[in-house]
Amino acid sequence: MENTINGIHHITAIAGNAKRNYNFYTNVLGQRLVKKTVNFDDPETYHLYYGDQNGTPGSILTFFPWEGIQTGRRGARQATEIGYSVPKGSLDFWVNRFEKHNVIYNKAAEKFGEEYLTVLDPDGLKLELTVSKTADTRLPWETDEVKAENAIKGFHNVTITTNKMQPTADILTGVFGYKLLEQHVNRYRFVTDAVENANIVDLVEVAGEVAGHVAGGSVHHVAFRVANEDILMQYREKIAALGLHITDKIDRNYFYSLYFREPGGVLFEIATDNPGFAVDEAVEELGQNLKLPEQHERFRSALEKSLPKLF
Ligand code: ZN
Q: Which residues form the VOC domain (predicted)?
């Protein structure tokens, strides 16, 4: 895990109503709200982070909930499916749960020899619950209704839809250390050996697919994981050397980040493990209180009034 890209760090998507988003991810899916903060660039909007107990990279799905935002459209140049890993034998539990909560889902299907359920979140974001064929020993967050034998363990994969897979594949293999594992029709599965989980990216090539529109219910960006800032900056050099525009290092309070648009059109981020989500509140209290970066702390009382109540 030295100088490598260690799979997915987090995925960020866009939602509409914040409370509806909170209810779905915590109550229905049984994820932990690990951080309640604001969009640093738009502090009147929440930035909600869901994941496992500690907010471990590889388990974190984050949202900007913009009330009333129009619905996006899935298409090319987008991350179009977010795959979670669930335990063997848990899919019946999830089907029953989705029935009970009126969640839209598809009957179980299979790809690359792995069974999965497709499910839409309340904004239409496409998720998959996949029973991985490789071991997933990660400990999940548990709730009263979603216990470990069924609980989501973190990410399994992310799917990117593209008109031409090769330029994106070149970034994955040439820079990020992934290799092509399997191909089925127009779906190419890439994996990195640097980590055991959250280490798969699927590229789906559809030449004629119209570009998607990023709005409600779509993925904003995919963040890949590195151990620390030194390694982060090594990747900055590598990306810049390809002639791609990449941002300076940005302090996101819980990690340090770089952003660049990969040639297939998806916004990629590279993010560090340090300092992590326990930097401003105890692990037992993660997600309980509104956390603000220093530059927005002076707006706290106004924000606490204007941001919608989640619980
Ligand atoms: Zn991000």
A: 7-132, 154-273
Please name the residue ranges forming H helices in 23-151: 91-100
Contact 263, 168 (CB under 8 A): yes
**Would you say residue 152 lies in a domain?**
yes
For residue 105, the CA-to-ligand 1 centroid distance in Å is: 27
Round the average pLDDT of the chain to a whole number and report it.
97
User: Ligand 1 mean position to 121 CA, how many Å?
Assistant: 19
Compute the distance between CA of residue 160 and CA of residue 77 in angstroms, rounded to an integer.
7
For residue 200, the CA-to-ligand 1 centroid distance in Å is: 18
Between CA 120 and CA 139 the distance in angstroms is 24
Residue 20 lies in a domain: yes
pLDDT category of residue 2 using cuts at 50, 70 and 90: confident
CA of 267 relative to ligand 1 center, distance in Å: 10
Can you give the pTM of this predicted structure?
0.98
* 1 found inside a domain: no
Q: Which domain holds residue 38?
A: 8-306
Residue 10 Cα to ligand 1 middle (Å):
6
Q: Using one digit for the tens of pLDDT, what is the confidence trace for 47-98?
A: 999 999 999 999 999 999 999 999 999 999 999 999 999 999 999 999 999 9
- Quote the number of domains for the chain: 1
Find the 92 Cα to ligand 1 centroid distance in Å. 32
pLDDT in tens, 14-33: 999 999 999 999 999 999 99
pLDDT reading at 122 higher than 80: yes
Helix (H) or strand (E) holding 167: helix 165-174
Residue 262 lies in a domain: yes
**How far does residue 271's CA lie from ligand 1's centre (Å)?**
7
